[in-house]
Write a structure and sequence with these properties.
The protein is mainly alpha-helical. The protein is globular, with a radius of gyration of 21 Å. The protein starts with a helix and ends in a 5-residue tail after the last helix. It is 67% helix and 0% strand. The chain has helices at residues 2-8, 21-25, 32-55, 57-60, 70-73, 78-99, 102-120, 128-147, 154-179, 182-188, 197-220, 239-252, 261-267, 269-289, 303-310.
Length: 315
Amino acid sequence: MPSYLRLMRPQEWVKNVIVLAGPVFALRVLEPAVAVAFIAFCLVSSASYVINDIVDREADRSHPTKRYRPIASGEVSVLSASTLAVFLLAAAVAIGYLFLPLSVLEAVFGYFLLIVAYSFALKRRPILDVIVIAIGFVLRAVAGAKAVELYVSPWLLVCTFTLCMFLGFGKRRCEVAALGNTDRALAHRPTLVRYTPELLNHLTSVSAGIAVVTFLLYTMDSSLAIRPPFTKEYLVYTLPLVVYALFRYAMLIESGKFSGPTQIMLTDRGLLLTGLVWVIVVLAIIVKTYQPRNADGAGRPPAEVVHRMAAPADP
């Protein structure tokens, strides 16, 4: 059983926290549908990890750490792993069908098809491989919002997409730093020979910059359609924490000591502390500026917005 559990990669479930993004900012994260959507994505992501390990079992044997994965090391057979993947996918689809809106089930199944296509073909296409992973995170975010029937800000989706591209290119940088020579990189992941350190540094810089800009656009967007029940504009004051976290991650991926973003985010004290402070600041903003919803479910706009709406038009 420990081998099967390792094969499911429960440590990677932290990536599915993005499902909670929309409900958290709408203050609806405690609704049961949110937890169900999170569980469904944990199951379907584990199914995709199993399939990926089946496809990559030969390449993983040339990697310094991935060679210890259950399939690559021979602890779990391909037949047993395939059975586990089918079971996990069936469980995710059943949960989505029984307890979630159809749009969420479509996102879950679409995510699975996307990752399967990535495992068999798209991962061999430089840059496209990271874009596909980023789209997978966007599907997670959309599913979380649709689980409680929220309208999703386009700026938030773009921010999620570019942030995940930044993390994805950072993972490639970790792999290049860890594998070192071209022969080992080619044996493990052929696309790595196309990713030079200079190119990856450029791609991470561009994607990080776009992520910061779109985060600012999201915080300053005063459209009533996407207004949560607190003054979202105050999130702009968390920008120093966001920038520090991005730059620290960019610094850590150069060391070659980490296997990927998950290990960095779960083990680096600086990033953990920054994330904790960011959560505390956001909670303080929510508590201080919370505005009860109207009967139609929309939050009241801030006083300055009300003033602009009520002001007479110029003659």
